[in-house]
């Protein structure tokens, strides 16, 4: 895996993400053991926008899954927003992941039976925000992302770029410490991909959102 490109904005800032000696093994101790991640070290400052690059199968998705705690590491530490996530119980980790980590997936992963605004408000409702306030915040964010005229459309009624904007809004709605994207433009055509990447850069620049 190539060393991630980093755009460090301030050396005095504490890292929003700090990874130390991270290892991930599959089928550990068996003849078909795979050592997917070997001693990863990574420090990311708040407001950085970075990309993890490498050949197919080098461990990019595995690393994102470790950071997002969609899978457990074999050893090592991951500190997010000054919290050592290895010390969290399963229930606290679920709440931490919901509140501190935003996800943007290649295939959008929107709920097909919910409208755009319902998809975006869902994380707020799960956090205990009352429905009226959650709805207004979701509407406001979608309007900021140019989706004000698609609030009540189902995913099947939206283009790929529009679905990804809804996915971005859902990732942003809880104001997470970091947002992780696993090939977020991989299923889009070149023009729409460029549009979505411009959106990411704008969010990073204006909101100082770590991506």
Automatic annotation (TrEMBL):
SUPFAM superfamilies in UniProt: P-loop containing nucleoside triphosphate hydrolases
Classification via InterPro entries: AAA+_ATPase, ABC_transporter-like_ATP-bd, ABC_transporter-like_CS, MacB-like_ATP-bd, P-loop_NTPase
Protein's UniProt keywords contain ATP-binding: yes
Domain of life assignment: Archaea
SMART domains with a match to the protein in the record: AAA (SM00382)
UniProtKB keywords: ATP-binding, Nucleotide-binding, Transport
Listed CDD domains: ABC_MJ0796_LolCDE_FtsE
GO cellular component: membrane protein complex
Pfam families: ABC_tran
One MF annotation (Gene Ontology) recorded for this entry: ATP hydrolysis activity
Annotated ABC transporter domain residues: 17-211
Similarity annotation: Belongs to the ABC transporter superfamily.
UniProt name for this protein: ABC transporter domain-containing protein
Species the sequence originates in: miscellaneous Crenarchaeota group-1 archaeon SG8-32-1
